[in-house]
Amino acid sequence: MIDTQTALGRCQDLLDIAKRFGADRADAMARASSSESVGVRLGALEDVERSESEEVALRVFVGQRTASIVTSDFSPESFAALAERAVEMARLAPEDPYVGFAPEDQLFTGDMPDLELGDTAEPTPAHLREAALAIEDAGRAVAGVSNSNGGNAVFSRSVAALATSHGFARGYAGSAHSRSAAMIAGEGGSMQTDYAHRTARYAEDLPDAAEIGREAGERTVARLNPGSLPSGKMPLVFDPRIGNGLIGHLLGAMNGGAIARKSSFLLGRENDALFDSALRLEEDPLRPRGQRSRPFDGEGVTCTPRALVENGRIFGWMTNVASARQLDLALTGHASRGGGGAPGVGASNVHLMAGTVDPEALMADIADGLYVSGVFGQGVNLVTGDYSRGAHGFRIRNGQLAEPVAEITIAGNLIDMFAAMIPANDLEFHHAVNVPSLRIDGMTVAGE
Q1: CB atoms within 10 A of CB 73
Q2: What's the mean per-residue pLDDT of the chain?
Q3: Which of 285, 159, 304, 241 is nearest to 437 (CA)?
Q4: Do 414 and 265 form a contact (C-beta atoms < 8 A)?
Q5: For residue 347, what pLDDT is reported?
Q6: Contact 158, 204 (CB under 8 A)
Q7: What distance in Å separates the CA atoms of residue 39 and residue 230, rounded to the nearest whole number?
Q8: Is 196 helix (H, G, I), strand (E, B) or coil?
Q9: Is 429 exposed, middle or buried (0-12, 13-18, 19+ CB in 10 A)?
Q10: Burial per residue of 107-118, b for 16 or more beta-carbon CB atoms within 10 angstroms, e otherwise
Q11: Digit-coded pLDDT (tens) for 68-113
């Protein structure tokens, strides 16, 4: 796989060629990745995969007209054809008064911070196979597990580089180790399945493989023989791996592009007290070994740690160049780049600060409620904030987890849910968005 300097060289070559073909301005984003994965099922090797991909995306400007194009052919002839085609496309595109580059005084400069994104140790295929087997063996050893959907171990590396025609040229590389398992319990119509999954930049930050397998097995067996519960309003407690989705909806609604399109349920509420005053949501793009750590955003703007929610209020809107210009706001360092096209908006490492009580105390006074351990369906309207998802989990009786429940629906409105949100103290940093257990009273449950 190419290194950062090679990626930057490709970007600069494309920019030079685009200028020769008539682009007023241009930027290029190069990405490369490699991964090796081993999967096992029922103690036997099921698949071994190795993949590598490299691409570079060119965006050109002719006045206020722009076009983007992506290639994985890095020959001089391909670059010339790509740049020529991109400029021709831009000349035919409609004018957009909001597109452009970030001001030079807001671009990242200076030394690259050591974010510890790349593990120097690289596991061999044999090591990945041993890890996958250990994960699956531990899951299958849990009493009540009847079958397996497999255990997997993956190692990957990635490189990202951005160069612009107004002088920005930086890149960084990273690694990721992933381990997962999915187990089956029960037979026929009573069959249940669940999983466990962990990802870390460094192998030493992963839990023991057997721990991941046991978690998958125990979660699966706990779901056997689910019932239902009466319909009505009641307190809900969200498992951390489900609760982070609620924060994901908040981040989507804080997207400056959504605000500019008037398609966010937070529109006009930026000065409202939406949360309890003690709740604090933080973003730290410079977190060492963070899954979304980055020194600069997809437009080269310096990334800065900040409170996204403090004293009950959001900090404002997350912007890229286009949305900041449209809304007449400052840049916030939230531009994101995918494989091509115009930059989007996205947050980095986000976490909801832990509360003061443990999960048991959080639900101790709930006479009858629901612990949500899984949701499904797409019933979230980010324009109105209406929330309705299929769910499964466990009934809460007199402050204790009781029998499993399934085939129910939970519903509310995100504005009301945010206002009622109470965090426990069990915050752990496993994902790009991390939350502790969350209690929300007064949600509607549709069961029996």
Answers
A1: 12
A2: 96
A3: 241
A4: yes
A5: 97
A6: no
A7: 41
A8: strand
A9: middle
A10: bbeeeeeebebb
A11: 999 999 999 999 999 999 999 999 999 999 999 999 999 999 999 9
Separation CA 83–CA 69 (nearest Å): 8
pLDDT reported for residue 448: 83
**Residue 339 confidence (pLDDT) above 80:** no
Give the bridge partners for 195, in sequence order.
182
Count of all residues that appear for the chain in the document: 448
Q: How far apart are CA 288 and CA 276, in angstroms?
A: 29
Rg over CA atoms, the chain: 24
Per-residue confidence at 148, pLDDT binned at 50, 70, 90?
very high
Token pair for 87? 């400029």
Report the distance separating Cα 276 and Cα 117, nearest Å: 34
Q: Residue 391: which of 409, 378, 412, 370 has the closest Cα?
A: 409
In DSSP terms, which residues pair with 66 in a beta bridge? 61
Q: What is the DSSP letter of 61?
A: E
CA-to-CA separations, 56 to 15, 34, 162, in angstroms, rounded: 11, 15, 10
Contacting residues for 88 by C-beta, under 8 A, at least 6 apart: none
Quick one: the chain helix, strand, coil %, rounded to 5?
25, 40, 40
Token pair of 435 as six digits: 């939350």
Q: Which two structure tokens, joined as six digits, stand for 373?
A: 């351990």
Asked if residue 360 has pLDDT above 90, the reply is yes
Would you say residue 340 has pLDDT above 90? no
CA distances from 112 to 26, 158, 170, 289, 346 (A): 24, 17, 9, 14, 21
DSSP-derived pairing of the beta strands 400-413 and 350-352: unpaired
Q: Are strands 368-376 and 232-238 parallel, antiparallel or unpaired?
A: parallel
**Burial track 213-232 (b if 16+ CB lie within 10 A, e otherwise):** bbbbbbbbbbbeebeebeee
Which residue has 């496993």 as its token pair? 430
Give the CATH number of domain 4-220: 3.30.2290.10
Q: How far is CA 429 from CA 284, 400, 422, in A?
A: 12, 26, 18
Torsion of CA 329, 334, 337, 342, to 10 degrees: -10
Q: Per-residue confidence at 116, pLDDT binned at 50, 70, 90?
A: very high
Q: Which residues make up the CATH 3.30.2290.10 domain(s) of the chain?
A: 4-220
Parallel, antiparallel, or unpaired for β 145-164 and 65-71?
unpaired
